[in-house]
Automatic annotation (TrEMBL):
Pfam families: DsbD_2. Keywords: Membrane, Transmembrane, Transmembrane helix. Residues 11-214 form the Urease accessory protein UreH-like transmembrane domain. The chain crosses the membrane at residues 12-37, 57-75, 81-105, 165-188, 200-217. The lineage of its organism: Bacteria, Pseudomonadati, Pseudomonadota, Gammaproteobacteria, Pseudomonadales. This is Urease accessory protein UreH-like transmembrane domain-containing protein.
Length: 227
């Protein structure tokens, strides 16, 4: 468990730093979901938004568990090292994207669009949202929306070689994204404007890239831990 705590903190920070990307990917969807709440349910808006996001985060944890099982299966093989290298490269690509320096990661998001085409009709049937269970289920489906940030973090979580750790890390990552998307759903313009600032996006991107470099296997990890 002591080994897990720093990883959980890292996953939480990754979610927070990815807030700008979340706004771009899910901010419009969050606004649409808010508008889809019937007028008579507007008084329960906060609870419905919490249910949306809880469903989304549980989907992340489920994906972490599933991919974590694959990571656990190859933990003692050369494939584990390859998985960690790919995860590190994806995190560096994510940092470049957040900073606005390279958008190649969007091509990876295209890989998940085929799955989303099958899920989207199911999500549409849940609109308008009239109850908390309906909002929770809609959020769980929303969690499978193609997202390079989620894919990058998911591979990093799976590279830990422990399915339970992977699920916990994705849960922490989802909690990190929660404040931004919840603020978007509640129309918190100041929060959104702050996260869209160039300086904030560049700072977040650089930190994610540094985390990707730290994740890359090699002697530099011991040097960084020593400093």
């Amino acid at each position: 468990m002591p080994d897990l705590l720093p990883l959980l903190g890292s996953a939480l920070v990754l979610g927070l730093l990815g807030g700008g990307h979340c706004l771009g990917m899910c901010g419009g969807l969050m606004g649409a979901l808010t508008l889809a709440i019937p007028p008579e349910q507007r008084g329960r808006r906060l609870r419905l938004l919490l249910a949306y996001n809880l469903g989304r985060i549980l989907s992340y944890a489920s994906a972490g568990l599933l991919l974590g099982l694959a990571g656990w299966a190859v933990a003692s093989s050369p494939a584990a090292l390859a998985l960690r290298v790919v995860a590190a490269l994806l995190l560096i690509a994510m940092g470049l994207y957040l900073a606005g320096w390279w958008s190649g990661l969007t091509r990876i998001e295209a890989l998940g669009r085929g799955l989303w085409r099958h899920i989207q009709p199911l999500a549409s049937r849940l609109l308008p949202v009239s109850s908390l269970p309906r909002a929770l289920l809609l959020g769980a489906l929303w969690g499978w929306l193609p997202c390079g940030l989620v894919y990058s973090t998911l591979l990093w979580a799976a590279s830990q070689g422990n399915a339970g750790y992977s699920a916990a890390l994705m849960l922490a990552f989802g909690l990190g994204t929660w404040p931004v998307l919840l603020a978007t759903g509640l129309a918190a313009e100041r929060v959104n404007a702050l996260l869209r600032r160039r300086s904030v996006r560049v700072a977040g991107g650089v930190l994610v890239m540094l985390f990707g470099i730290w994740t890359m296997p090699g002697p530099h990890q011991h040097w960084l831990m020593g400093h």
